[in-house]
């Protein structure tokens, strides 16, 4: 049974649209072994159905167990999860468990870690929840369309002793592109979306509903788990009149801190756990506003104060979460690997600019091994490949999602530390996700990060350089890609091999 309440649906809100190796290998287990750990059994049935997103009427969508989001899966750290997926769609699908460190064979990437689940077929995923935190699940088969039609859901792994709060609440943020009749637009994978900032919709939901108010009480402390399930929309949430404290990022604990400029930023696939103390008085409405897209700010939801206060002031309870069992990377002994993201609309212009600042050296699309060449050569090569259908490149290579034959771009020695230095040589934001591992974000544009936060998805701004570090302790071939799903479709994905 889901533990999150659906916000009241009381207003119509069309927002402005913006221009098989190691298959059976297991990670190190917690002290509880599979022989003694409790197993949580869950059934998921992806199928076509109808969903009430806006009033009046219903919208045809693709749903897990008849709902979008799908059921909230909750279990305790150290428990084992077994999920039986019965595919009732008319096409193949998979389920990827985003952010979870699990065996490669359970990762849900079609043709890389498993054969897709055919129409009418069944597949059983089974793995241990070694990390506590906020995670989610979604297809990796035709993901830009299947996620865009509603296939996603939250997965919460609770700490053995959860943080003390009055309420633990999940907000799964969704983004839909609807027509004037309230149906999902069928323009999936169009060239404009692929070459620009992806499929940004015109209707935003919390837990599958267009929200108006979220009921709160003075003195209440809420652990608010935010999950961005949108294909491409980036959120920057302003909890005006309140002071949210960040306690976890992508499921991994972080030193409790106020978000920069008071804004909670989530790129696609990213999660933030907040502590939110309710300091208002009965009867007031405090707007939560999304401010990411300049000139297109909008009210996401009102915090509606009602009823008798829980207490007169915020409780003095601990904020810090216990660390998960992640191996610490050794930066001095780490290998160093360079990754350059290029392409997209205006990509040739950015490549030339960055080529000048980097001494005229940039990555040439399609060059063997990603060899270096002058910026003007990159421009010519990029334009030729874009005209052939490719849009985005990692180290000069545009992946073919339908080709089913992706060779590893990087081979990383198992149980060794590695640094990935990433350069976003494009005009667009990219949330970059690595499967099977969490990593520390250690620098941005040459400056050490304040919190050295653990993440599995990091948001790169245009022209930004970011370094991440991790121990490659999970063997197999792992996806590494942009989680703007249209960018992934357009070529911005690769495979890292850990062996």
TrEMBL record:
Gene3D superfamilies: Cupredoxins - blue copper proteins (2.60.40.420)
InterPro entries per UniProt: Cu-oxidase-like_N, Cu-oxidase_2nd, Cu-oxidase_C, Cu-oxidase_fam, Cu_oxidase_CS, Cu_oxidase_Cu_BS, Cupredoxin, TAT_signal
Species whose genome carries this gene: Sinorhizobium psoraleae
Domain (Plastocyanin-like) ranges: 58-161, 168-261, 395-498
Keywords, ordered alphabetically: Metal-binding, Oxidoreductase, Signal
CDD domains noted in UniProt: CuRO_1_CumA_like, CuRO_2_CumA_like, CuRO_3_CumA_like
Signal peptide range in chain numbering: 1-37
Descriptive protein name: Multicopper oxidase family protein
Coiled-coil region list: none
């Amino acid at each position: 049974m889901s533990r999150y309440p659906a916000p009241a649906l009381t207003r119509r809100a069309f927002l402005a649209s913006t221009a098989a190796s190691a298959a059976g290998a297991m990670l190190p287990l917690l002290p509880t072994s599979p022989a003694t750990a409790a197993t949580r059994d869950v059934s998921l049935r992806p199928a076509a159905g109808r969903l009430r997103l806006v009033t009046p009427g219903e919208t045809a969508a693709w749903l897990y167990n008849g709902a979008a989001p799908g059921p909230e899966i909750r279990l305790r750290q150290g428990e084992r999860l077994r999920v039986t997926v019965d595919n009732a769609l008319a096409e193949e699908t998979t389920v990827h468990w985003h952010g979870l460190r699990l065996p490669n064979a359970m990762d849900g990437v079609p043709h890389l870690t498993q054969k897709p689940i055919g129409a009418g077929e069944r597949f059983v995923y089974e793995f241990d929840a070694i990390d506590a935190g906020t995670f989610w699940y979604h297809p990796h088969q035709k993901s830009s369309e299947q996620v865009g039609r509603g296939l996603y859901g939250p997965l919460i792994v609770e700490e053995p002793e959860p943080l003390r709060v009055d309420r633990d609440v999940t907000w799964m943020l969704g983004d839909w592109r609807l027509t004037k009749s309230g149906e999902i637009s069928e323009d999936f994978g169009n060239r404009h979306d692929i070459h620009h900032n992806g499929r940004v919709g015109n209707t935003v939901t919390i837990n599958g509903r267009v929200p108006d108010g979220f009921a709160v009480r003075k003195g209440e402390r809420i652990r608010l788990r935010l999950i961005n399930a949108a294909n491409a929309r980036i959120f920057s949430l302003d909890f005006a009149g309140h002071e949210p404290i960040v306690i976890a990022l992508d499921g991994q604990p972080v030193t409790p801190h106020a978000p920069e400029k008071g804004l909670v930023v989530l790129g696609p696939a990213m999660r933030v756990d907040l502590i939110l103390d309710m300091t208002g008085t009965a009867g007031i409405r405090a707007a939560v506003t999304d401010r990411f897209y300049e000139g297109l700010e909008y009210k996401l939801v009102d915090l509606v104060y009602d009823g008798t206060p829980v207490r007169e002031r915020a409780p003095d309870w601990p904020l810090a979460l216990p660390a998960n069992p992640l191996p610490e990377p050794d930066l001095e002994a780490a290998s160093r690997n360079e990754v350059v993201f290029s392409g997209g609309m205006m990509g040739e212009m950015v490549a030339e600019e960055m080529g000048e600042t980097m001494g005229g050296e940039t990555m040439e699309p399609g060059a063997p091994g990603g060899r270096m060449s002058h910026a003007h050569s990159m421009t010519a090569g990029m334009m030729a490949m874009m005209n052939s259908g490719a849009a985005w490149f990692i180290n000069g290579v545009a992946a073919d999602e339908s080709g089913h034959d992706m060779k590893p771009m990087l081979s990383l020695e198992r149980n060794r530390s590695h640094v990935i230095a990433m350069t976003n040589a494009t005009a667009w934001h990219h949330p970059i996700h690595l499967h099977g591992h969490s990593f520390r974000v250690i620098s941005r544009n040459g400056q050490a990060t304040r919190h050295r936060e653990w993440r599995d998805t990091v948001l790169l701004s245009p022209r930004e350089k970011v370094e991440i570090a991790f121990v490659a302790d999970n063997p197999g071939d792992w996806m590494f890609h942009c989680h703007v799903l249209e960018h992934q479709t357009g070529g911005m994905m690769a495979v890292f091999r850990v062996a």
